[in-house]
Amino acid sequence: MSNSQKKAQVGVIGLAVMGSNLARNFAHHGHTVAVFNRTTSKTEAFIQEHGTEGEFIPATTMADFVAALERPRRAIIMVQAGAGTDAVISQLADLMEPGDIIVDGGNALYTDTIRREKEISARGLHFVGAGISGGEEGALNGPSIMPGGTVESYESLGPLLESIAAVVDGTPCCTHIGPDGAGHFVKMVHNGIEYADMQVIGEAYHLLRYAAGLEPQEISEIFREWNQGDLDSYLIGITAEVLAQVDAKTGKPLIDVIVDAAGQKGTGRWTVKDALDLGIPTTGIGEAVFARALSGARTQRAAAKGNLPAGELNNLEKLNISRADFVEDVRRALYASKLVAYAQGFDEIIAGSKKYEWNVDPRDLATIWRGGCIIRAHFLNRIVEAYNDNPEVESLLLAPYFTKEMGDSIDSWRRVVVAATQLGLPIPVFASSLSYYDSLRAARLPAALIQGQRDFFGAHTYERIDLPGHFHTLWSGDRTEVEA
Question: Is the model's pTM score more than 0.85?
Fold first, then answer.
């Protein structure tokens, strides 16, 4: 119902699905919510459809929207990232007063958030970049929320956000991440992990379908079983549902009528670009992004189909691998590859936090990602424990629990990668994650040769294992070594 006499505790601008569900979530938790959309008819439709779910104050102008909010005003923007967001922020800032809070709840690039926070704070306002994960269902029933901004802004905004967030073991899946762009940076990497997670699940399905010869309904049951153990997660659960779905038009499994070209909105690419800048090898995430790009190269794929030689291919029978053993090996390989994706993502977050001096606590992230978000998984509890035991652990894979899990999976993982190669089936994240793991544990890497090459053609110097300092060999001269 509308209540024009009462001030709203929070306001939502942008009433597409995510914005409208977020507004409804606030209302369901007893908050009076001001709502505004640039297209007035959308606001009217929202009130007509959902107005009985709680107390809403619809606004037809931005000025009316701001006037409907109690002080300090808390306005959440849920509009398309980019220029549109900047325009709304500017309009809001012109109408607001010192101490008021503007929240960008979209998937903004964190460097944009850093810029916006600097501009808005100079005007005496608070700007909060808040990552919100969980999709449409999460926005309505309890998302995972990753707000950045000042500590002061969280003191006012936090209780509201925590009231609508998912809750696991009595703890809301929302916490203050850190200053300026920290929240959106963490959400970006969350999405990068999501890319890798989805790709390895896809690779597992592909192997079970085209190597083990199982039908989608059978694979759905396998995923349901896997979701009861170590792999218990939201994405494994919905995978079972997708694979069980039958297309009403054709009677075929729905998976067989969906075009095999995956879309992307940019957060995965951002994650990889920033990892490169930070010098963090997020190989699993990178391969997942490239896999989506390759899936969309439909003209090239059509030209290559049947025209690129495959060499001699085997099958499981020729490889002397039973179907049951192969399914179990795939399960273990999937688990190991997922752990690598999370480990790499946390490495990037820690590196970004150091660069920007955000002081992000990885335990907080593992805690708030246990519910509401797309990458929620049972083993996130183990990540919390790992950082509790050793906050300075060099890699999650070196935490005792995860080291043991990798040890239990490694032989299966190797067998799957070898078998997939001999079967001619693509497994970019399975394979790259295994190579990352082997590189991480290797006593020596071929980088020594690369550094020798760099010194040969560019006099870039090298370090020795037995002496301090940097050295250069006079390759064009008598090849003696000099200290640089």
Answer: yes
